[in-house]
Each structure stands twice: as structure tokens, then as C-alpha cells.
Write a structure and sequence with these properties.
The complex is a heterodimer of chains A (about 260) and B (about 550).
Chain A (H helix, E strand, L loop, with lengths): L1 E6 L1 E3 L5 E2 L6 E2 L5 E3 L1 H17 L2 E7 L5 H10 L3 E5 L9 H15 L4 E5 L10 H8 L4 E11 L2 E8 L2 E8 L2 E5 L12 H7 L4 E4 L1 H4 L34 H14 L6
Parallel strand pairs in A: 1-6, 1-8, 6-7, 7-13, 8-12, 9-12
Antiparallel strand pairs in A: 2-5, 3-4, 9-10, 10-11
Chain B lengths: L5 H18 L2 H10 L4 H8 L22 H14 L1 H20 L2 H13 L4 E4 L15 E7 L2 E15 L6 E8 L2 E8 L5 E6 L10 E12 L11 H7 L1 H29 L1 E2 L2 E2 L4 H7 L1 H22 L6 H30 L6 H8 L9 H18 L4 H15 L5 H20 L6 H24 L12 H30 L12 H6 L4 H15 L4
Parallel strand pairs in B: 1-4
Antiparallel strand pairs in B: 2-3, 3-7, 4-5, 6-7, 8-9
Helix pairs in contact in B: 1-4, 4-5, 4-8, 5-7, 5-8, 8-10, 8-11, 8-12, 10-11, 10-16, 10-17, 11-12, 11-13, 11-16, 13-16, 14-15, 15-16, 15-17, 16-17, 17-19
Classes of the chains: A alpha/beta (about 260), B alpha+beta (about 550).
């Protein structure tokens, strides 16, 4: 089996600051990390690789510095890595991004399983994984907490409201992974990092993957981010006291005054 | 050896930081510090090749290591020191313990010991210091007597005591300096050797997570194959050969501890509201307790990186340069941590905040691997020779380089650095003419002044470079402003302190004051406060409190 894991390099959200004057995020000088959801997906992929002797490829789309997350993936256990990097990719929204990654996956060849982190912590759209599946006309299961292989079947535990579903899938299929609360990310030992330099690493451009200009970058993006800003600070809440009946009367009064409710 | 690529190095540092985030919380470190306990399991994990394998950085590839360069080791040492200097010392001791092998071992010895250290994750100790032989190893008393069989040398019997040995009671293997009939020599000694025993773990002021113990040798038999290099008498030269390198490591400790403490202080100052606003907005606070230390630490960083790159480029020795790096960075780190306690006020004085521990820890960096007084002496001796050899032109030539640099990049304070260097040259020359270096005090003080000038020179040069290393957190404008501030301070201190020094010792009249360009140095002080204001603002931006 051949597994592909898609990973993204993102700003460390714990270090992002807000520019008080403009209300926008200050990204300059913020350290970059592997998207935590992708880190979980990668660790699950490595478990599968070890248990079933699969081949594992890690892919990322990003600027040249994103090579860091590819090297991390290889150091943790992937067999090879591909960075999709081209100025023409800049400005791509999730649809254009998923197009680029799907072209790269097509170039890789016959793939059995694609794992993605459920969402990236900078964009939080959770759209790229499903977008890739759509471009590849591949079945997808999202919100997966765990994944196993049983013969030719892929078994996932999908998180739903109030519980989970166990879903069986045939390959090829794409799964987006959501880490459990007790997820402990692994980091590679020094020797594994050193040895990762000996494994295959490729950097592919638009031409390498045969991507068409109209489907990438700003041109290929049906959506564009206008602005990212923090929500306005909440005002102090009004606490409603009294027994249930009294509280309900007070709340109805407030709703009427605020025009939420017409009685 | 050359350092590795930046990406690999940064990944290793990330692994180290993430290991520390998970396993070395402030609460854990505080508990171990309170108990004076060596964290055995932590060191085992740090050496475990499947978890971190940090010791592999210093073992050559051919013996199962990674062949890290000086720059790599500097960065790892800095990050380790930021985590805990006691743990950093435990790792450093292994680095140090393998040095006699690296420098003086035969190929077979390197193959045997380095491979074992790498593969078996062995902790190593470097056993040189004795009760009467600290700064001065010539007073070595531990003896290595010949053991003969049928008239042929088969081994040695070690007798004596060592003191203050890092990893002393926990190491698996020791490199031990002893006086053999042919002179001081290094021996590899394994734990459990009959006649060899470590003493109790010392109860120390700081680095309490580092195991420090004396060692006792009572006719401990060591086979002759364990004599490093198979030749007696080269021990002191072998020790000195790596000083440039080991001093850079301890310099990195000073830098790491200093920045860890300073970052705590900068963040605290933004949250502490007094007198109607945060302390971070108050000049009396920032310009005393924060800004000068940021400037001094970054000057030390520039110098450490310069020397690391030179060692990685194949230069040997650089003991004087190593001494300058060690002296400057550890003095800065120590003073920064001291002022970090002050910066946090009452909170800084409690154990709930990390700065008091950092201060207790970092003090050792001014003592071990050569006390800072020995560093002053070493700096003086090395640079004095240059001054004499060049008939007083050594620092004048460096000043001329700064003149050219100033004409190309006026923002970095190269004009002040040039004045600092010329003032130094004049002071050294006056000391030569009046034979003032017969006063030991003068030589030590000159060592200090020389370090200011050397750092000003390198900081100006490196801050004018097109590209900075990945370690520099500040933008070009800020780093160049720091260089400018450092150079202005260096010029003034060298001129005034140097003049006072000479006047205090001179027996003949001197016109030194006219040769120091004090008027020009004074003029260039203009703008110092606004430069410090800029640095204070940018430090707040860079280390924003949550």
C-alpha cells in the first residue's frame, strides 16, 4: 500500500500577536510549525506504515522554507517527501490548493490512502482535504480520530455529535484526521533528523505537476481572504438571577427590548 | 568540522525544545533543584538515540555520531542552557570528556571509545580539577605510576583525588588527567574500576540538577591501552588544544541563561502596572535593567558566531578568541540574570519565578571551564602578543577596517568602534612604554578592555553583513542600533577606564589623555538615549507578553 500524507507549515498560533492599531494578525517573526492536525495524521500514517509495511510519502504546498515540514515528516518515518513550491501558487485559496496537491498526487502514481489533517490552524477552513478528494473523484471520510487497515479494508473511527461512527472504506480513499485531546506529538531524535537527509526529497513546480495556470494562484481561487482580525472584545455579560420562572420573564423582556422576539 | 544545514539544526533544536516542554516544566525543575537531585531518567532519555541522542552531536559520523560543527554545538548549548544549566552541564561534561580522545586518541582508541559512547549512550565525565589544581593544572597531584610485568609496562595505578567533577558520581566513563612519569597524561577509566570511587554529590548554590562529585583513586589499575594517545606527557597540551571550542560552549551557556532571564523580565515588565503604566514604558527601568543587557548579549552572540564559523572553517586553536567569547557572554549572562531578579522585584526573589534559579545557575559559568579572571589573563596575554608583534599596529589596523566600514554602513557604529580600538592601542602602548604590565591587576583589567574592543569590532562587522544567521530575532535596524550602542559604550569605557588604569600605575608623566580622542568619543555619544528608546520598544514587540 502507498500512503500519502498532506502537511502544512503554519505560524505557531500561540505566538501570533495582534496589531492593536489595525486589528490584524502580526505574522512577521512568528515561528513556523507543522500544523498540529497534520502532525497527528502523519503519526497515524507512520503507525500504518510500520504495521503493514506500506510506503509513505509526505507532501506539502508552500514556500521553500516549508521544506522543514517535509524533512520533519521524513525524519519521523516517511520514505520520501515532495514540496510543491512555485510563485504561481501564491494567493491560492483552498480550492486552488487542493487542485495543486491533487495534481501532485496524480503524478506520484497509484495511491491507496490519503491522510490530511482536518484543518489548518491558520485558515481553519477544513476544506483542502475534501477538495483533494473531489479533484481526484475519491471517497472521503472527515473527522477521523483513528484509522486501521484490515486486509483490503480501511477502518476509521469518525467523530460525530455525541459519539462516533466506525466506517469501513475501500481504497483508494481520503481521510481527514482530528487529534484526540490527549494527543502527544512526537519529535524526531537527532540521528533520525541527520539520516533524513539521505532520503529522497523532491521540489515540484507548476510545470512539474502539469498544473494549468487558470486553476492556480489568485486566478484559480473562487474565494479570496479580505481580512483576518480578532473578534471584538465581548462586553461584560449580564447575569440573570432568580428562580426559573422569574429568570424566563426577565430574559423574554430583554429579547423583546433587543428585538430578538416579538410577542 | 563544518556545521550542518540550518534546517536540520533547527529541527534538532525543535526536538530538544519540545522534549523540554513536555518533560522539563518549571515545576519539575524547581522540585529537582529543591531536592538537589540529578534527573537520571531525563539524562538517560536525552542520550537515548530513539528519543533525542543529543550526545551524538559531538561524535564523528565514522563512530556512529552526527559530526556536529561548532555552530551546531553553540546552538544546542544555548537552548540547553535556556532549559536548565544543570542539565546542560551534564551534557556538556560528555562533550568535554570526549575531547582528550578527539585531540589525542589513536585511531583504535577513538574507534573503541567513541563508538561505545555513541552506541551505548554513555555518560562521560572530564576529570582534571583537584583541590590544589584548578586554574593551575600544573599542580596536578593525582599520580599514574607504572605497573610492570616482567620488566614491561602493562598498565598504570592511579592514586589521588579529583574535585568538582561534573557527572562525577553518575558517569559511565571518565577521562582522567594524572601525572605519569612522563608528565601529565589522560586516561580512560570505566566506572566500577577497582580502587576508583566517586564521592558524594555536592550541595551547590546553583546547577543543582548537575551531578558534581569528587573522585577518589586508590591504586586503581588501568591497562596501558587506556592511556590516550599511547604517549605520556601530552595531557596539558591536549587539554588546551580544545579550549577555543569548549569556551564557545560555555559562552553559549551564558548567552542562553542571560536571554532566558531577560525574556522573562521583558514579558513581566509589560504586565506589571505601576505609576499609571507598565514598567516596559518606563525608561528608568528599561534603560537600566533591560536594554543594556540585550545589547551586551547580542554583542556576545555576534562574537560567538564569528568564532564558531572560524572553527568550522578549519582554523585550529583560537584559545584567546574562545576566552573572549566565554568571558563576555558569561559576564553578561550573570549580570543579566542578576538584574532580572531586580526587574521582577519581590516576585523575582521568590522561587515561583524562574529568574532566581537562573541567577544561581549562571554564576557557575563565570567559574568553570576557566574562571573569568583566568579568561582576563588569557585574553591579555594573547592580544598583548599581537600588540607587540605588530609594534602597536594590531588594533590600529582593526580601527582602519572600521573606518572603511563606517564609510559604507554608517548605521552600525563602526566609527565608535574605530575610536574604541584606537584608544585601546594607545593604552596598550603606554603600558608598554611604562612597563605597567608588571602589575598583574593591570593585565587583568586590560583583558576586560580588550574584550570590549574585540566585541565592538565583530558586532559592527556582522551587523553590516547582507544576511544574518537564523538566530538573530531582530530586524536589521534594531540589530544595527544595538551594535551602535555597544560601540559607543565600549569606546567610552575603554578610554576612561584605560586612562584611570594607566594614571593609577604610571610612575612617569603621560600625555595619554590627548591620544585617546576623548572629545570625538564624547561627540559620538549623541543619540544614545534615543537608540536605547528604540531598542526598548522593539524588545517589547519581539517578546510580547500574552
Amino acid at each position: 500500500m502507498h500512503i500519502v500524507v498532506c502537511v502544512k507549515q503554519v505560524p505557531d498560533s500561540t505566538e501570533i500577536k495582534i496589531d492593536i492599531e489595525t486589528g490584524t494578525l502580526i505574522r512577521a517573526g512568528v515561528p513556523s510549525i507543522i500544523n498540529p492536525y497534520d502532525h497527528f495524521a502523519l503519526q497515524k500514517a507512520i503507525e500504518l506504515k510500520k504495521a503493514h509495511k506500506c510506503k509513505l510519502t509526505v507532501i506539502s504546498m508552500g514556500p521553500p522554507q516549508a521544506k522543514s515540514v517535509i524533512q520533519l515528516g521524513i525524519a519521523l518515518g516517511a520514505d520520501d517527501g515532495i514540496l510543491l513550491s512555485d510563485r504561481a501558487f501564491a494567493g491560492s485559496d483552498t480550492w486552488a490548493t487542493s487542485y495543486v496537491i491533487s495534481k501532485a498526487i496524480k503524478k506520484v502514481g497509484k495511491i491507496d490512502i490519503i491522510l490530511c489533517g482536518m484543518q489548518a490552524i491558520d485558515g481553519d477552513t477544513a476544506q483542502v482535504g475534501p477538495g483533494i478528494a473531489q479533484h481526484l473523484a475519491m471517497p472521503q471520510v472527515t473527522f477521523c480520530e483513528d484509522i486501521k487497515i484490515d486486509g483490503k479494508k480501511i477502518i476509521v473511527r469518525k467523530l460525530i455529535d455525541g459519539g462516533y461512527e466506525i466506517i469501513e472504506a475501500n481504497s483508494p480513499a481520503l481521510f481527514t484526521m482530528i487529534m484526540p485531546k490527549d494527543f502527544e506529538p512526537r519529535y524526531p531524535a537527532f540521528m533520525d533528523i541527520h539520516n533524513s537527509l539521505d532520503k529522497p526529497y523532491h521540489q515540484w513546480s507548476m510545470a512539474d505537476i502539469g498544473a494549468e495556470e487558470q486553476y492556480i494562484g489568485l486566478k484559480g481561487s473562487p474565494t479570496q481572504v479580505d481580512r483576518i482580525y480578532p473578534p471584538p472584545a465581548r462586553e461584560k455579560a449580564e447575569m440573570i438571577s432568580g428562580g426559573a420562572n422569574e429568570a424566563v420573564e426577565k430574559i423574554v423582556d430583554i429579547f423583546e427590548k433587543e428585538n430578538f422576539l416579538k410577542i | 568540522m563544518a556545521s550542518m544545514d540550518t534546517l536540520s539544526r533547527e529541527l534538532m533544536l525543535d526536538s530538544l525544545r519540545n522534549y523540554a516542554k513536555k518533560n522539563l516544566t518549571h515545576e519539575f525543575l524547581k522540585e529537582m533543584d529543591d531536592k538537589n537531585e540529578f534527573p537520571t531518567e531525563i539524562l538517560k532519555e536525552m542520550y537515548d538515540q530513539s528519543i533525542l541522542g543529543v550526545h551524538l552531536l559531538l561524535i564523528p559520523k565514522e563512530y556512529g555520531g552526527i559530526s556536529g560543527g561548532t555552530f551546531d554545538v553553540y546552538r544546542v548549548c544555548e537552548v540547553l542552557a535556556r532549559i536548565d544549566l544543570g542539565i546542560a552541564t551534564g551534557v556538556f561534561a560528555t562533550f568535554l570528556g570526549t575531547d582528550p580522545l578527539s585531540v589525542g586518541g589513536t585511531d583504535d582508541q577513538k574507534e573503541e571509545w567513541m563508538t561505545r559512547i555513541a552506541k551505548e549512550n554513555l555518560l562521560v565525565a572530564y576529570a582534571a580539577t583537584e583541590a590544589d589544581a584548578g586554574s593551575d593544572l600544573v599542580n596536578l597531584r593525582t599520580r599514574a605510576d607504572h605497573v610492570l610485568k616482567n620488566g614491561e609496562l602493562i598498565g598504570y595505578k592511579l592514586t589521588g583525588n579529583k574535585q568538582w567533577i561534573s557527572n562525577g558520581a553518575v558517569a559511565d566513563v571518565y577521562s582522567v588527567l594524572a601525572m605519569a612519569p612522563g608528565g601529565p597524561s589522560w586516561f580512560m577509566v570505566e566506572k566500577g574500576t577497582e580502587g576508583f570511587s566517586p564521592n558524594k554529590h555536592e550541595d551547590k548554590h546553583g546547577i543543582r540538577l548537575s551531578n558534581t562529585a569528587g573522585l577518589s583513586f586508590d591504586d586503581a589499575y588501568i591497562p596501558k591501552k587506556n592511556l590516550i594517545g599511547n604517549v605520556e606527557g601530552h595531557g596539558l597540551l591536549q587539554a588546551q588544544a580544545v579550549f577555543g571550542y569548549t569556551r564557545v560552549m560555555v559562552a553559549a551557556f551564558g548567552l542562553g541563561c542571560g536571554w532566558e532571564a531577560l525574556e522573562v523580565a521583558i514579558k513581566y515588565s509589560q504586565q506589571r502596572i505601576q505609576g499609571g503604566g507598565p514598567l516596559s514604558d518606563k525608561q528608568g527601568y528599561t534603560h537600566k535593567l533591560i536594554v543594556p543587557h540585550a545589547v551586551d548579549l547580542e554583542a556576545a552572540r555576534a562574537y560567538i558566531e564569528e568564532i564558531s564559523e572560524r572553527l568550522d572553517g578549519g582554523e585550529k586553536g583560537l584559545q584567546t578568541e574562545g576566552a573572549i567569547a566565554k568571558y563576555a557572554a558569561t559576564e553578561s549572562g550573570n549580570q543579566t540574570a542578576e538584574d532580572a531578579i531586580q526587574a521582577l522585584g519581590g516576585y523575582g526573589y521568590t522561587k515561583d519565578f524562574s529568574v532566581e534559579k537562573i541567577k544561581r545557575d549562571v554564576k557557575i559559568a563565570c567559574i568553570y571551564e576557566g574562571t573569568n579572571e583566568v579568561m582576563e589573563m588569557t585574553i591579555f596575554r594573547g592580544c598583548w602578543q599581537e600588540h607587540l608583534k605588530t609594534r602597536g599596529q594590531h588594533y590600529v589596523s582593526m580601527a582602519e577596517e572600521m573606518d572603511v566600514l563606517h564609510s559604507q554602513t554608517p548605521e552600525v557604529g563602526a566609527n565608535s568602534a574605530a575610536l574604541a580600538l584606537r584608544a585601546l592601542a594607545a593604552i596598550l602602548e603606554e603600558c608598554r612604554i611604562q612597563r605597567l604590565t608588571r602589575h598583574q591587576y593591570i593585565t587583568f583589567k586590560l583583558g576586560k578592555l580588550i574584550s570590549f574592543a574585540e566585541l565592538a569590532f565583530i558586532f559592527a562587522r556582522r551587523s553590516s553583513a547582507d544576511r544574518y544567521t537564523e538566530t538573530i530575532k531582530f530586524d536589521r535596524n534594531v540589530w544595527q542600533t544595538m551594535s551602535r550602542v555597544y560601540a559607543k559604550n565600549a569606546a567610552l569605557r575603554i578610554a576612561i577606564e584605560g586612562l584611570a588604569l594607566v594614571l593609577g600605575a604610571a610612575e612617569k608623566d603621560t600625555d595619554l589623555a590627548e591620544n585617546l580622542n576623548l572629545d570625538k568619543i564624547q561627540v559620538l555619544q549623541k543619540g544614545l538615549i534615543s537608540d536605547m528608546d528604540l531598542i526598548a520598544l522593539k524588545l517589547k514587540d519581539t517578546f510580547k507578553a500574552k
